[in-house]
Each structure stands twice: as structure tokens, then as C-alpha cells.
Amino acid sequence: MSNQPGGESAAQLDLAADHRETTGQAAADKAARKAADEAARKAAASKEAADTVLQAFGGVRGMIDMTLPGLVFIVTYNITHQVSTAGWAALALCALFVVVRLARRETVQHAFSGVFGVGLGVWISMKSGHAEDFYLPGLLWNVGYCFAMAVSALVRWPLIGVMLGPITGEMFTWRKENPGRLAAYTRATWAWAVIMGIKPVILFPLYLTHNVNLLGWLKVALGIPPLLLAMYVTWQILLKAPPPIKAQLDDDDEEPAAK
What we know:
Blueprint: H1 7-50, H2 52-56, H3 59-80, H4 83-103, H5 109-128, H6 136-154, H7 159-168, H8 173-176, H9 179-196, H10 198-209, H11 212-221, H12 225-239
Helix pairs in contact: 1-12, 3-4, 3-5, 3-11, 4-5, 6-9, 6-10, 9-12, 10-11
């Protein structure tokens, strides 16, 4: 039985059409997978960068090092009613933190900053004889810190970016090469200025009333929660930000090739 005229040609056209459709669908699937992989890669890079927030601020240990000396001071002062005894107890705890970190070969940056801050507070309070003066350096530091955050955001050098850039490996590429990340760091810096500004707004009036007990306990209570909130807000902002662009070393910074 012979084929109908043009039957073979029509079948070939159908096969060619099926092939084009299959090829087009495969290309579309490949492009979709590539786009999904790229989106997942960017999301993973953004999450990795966001996760550096806790590391930058000393982690859980850093928060403990920051909070416990103030707690020891107010507890000891309530027991002994002596500024010097309470001050030396807080300073001894800070020194212990440094020794422990050195023994474990951990970074002592946050522990040493704690020793300096507590030591200054102890010196001022012992000189004046007023227990509330122990908290004065910390209050002034909070005010200066929030002011510096606000100014850095205004001049487009947000301090959160300055602090996280070396940790994420992007250094300062976010300033000119990654505008979305600059915007994210600016928002995060403003968030820190506002959230951490809550502490001096509440505590400074108490300092002026000389109510050392209420000041001391509120200082402890407000030590970690605002910090955690600021970290969480920063983490959320950086999750949605473009991933970091890693900084490229200059030729002079690269190791010379072996001859």
C-alpha cells in the first residue's frame, strides 16, 4: 500500500515540530534551573554574611562579659554598702574573663574593652564616693556610640559596614560596587543608633536622681535585650541585601609566583 502524497513530508514536519518543542522546553528548564541555582547561591551568600553579625559583636560570651560585671557591682554594693569593695569585685571578674580567654586562646578584644570600661567606672566612683558614678562611663559611651552611628550613616560610611566588611571579606566594596549593600548597611546602622539609644534615654535620668539600686538593676536588665534586638534587625536587613562582593587583592599584595 503506497503512502498518501505528502504523508511522509507531514510526518517529518510533525517530528521536527516535536523536536523544537522538546528542545525549547529543555532550554527553558535549564534556564529556570540556572536562575534558581543563582538565586539560591545569592541567598546562601547573603545568609552567610548576615550570620557574621553575632561574631562581630563578640557572640554570647561577649554579651556575658559585658553584663556580669555590672551585676556583680550592684549585688556586692547592696551587701557591703561600700563602693570600693563593689568596684574591686567587678574589676576582678573582668580580669578573670581575660585570663580565661587567654587560657583558651580566644580573642581578648571584648574582654579587654570590658576591663577598661569597668576600671574607669571603678576609678570615678571611688574618687567621688558615689556608687552611681560606676555607670557613668558606660552611659557616656552609649551616647557617643549612638552619635557615631548616626553620623556615619549620614556621611555614607555606615559603621555596621565598616565593622562587617573585613569579616565577610568584602572590605569596602559595598561603598561603590554594591549600592544595595550600602543601603542595607545604612539602614542597619540607623537601627543600631535608635535601638541602642533607648538605654541612655532611660538610664541617664535615673543617674541624675542618684538612685543607684534602680539604676544598677535596670542597667543589667537593659544590657542584653537591646543588643539582641539590634542584632536581629541587622540580620533581617542583611538577609534581604545583595550578597557581598569579595574584595580583590592588588597585584602588589599577592604572593609572587615561584620562579
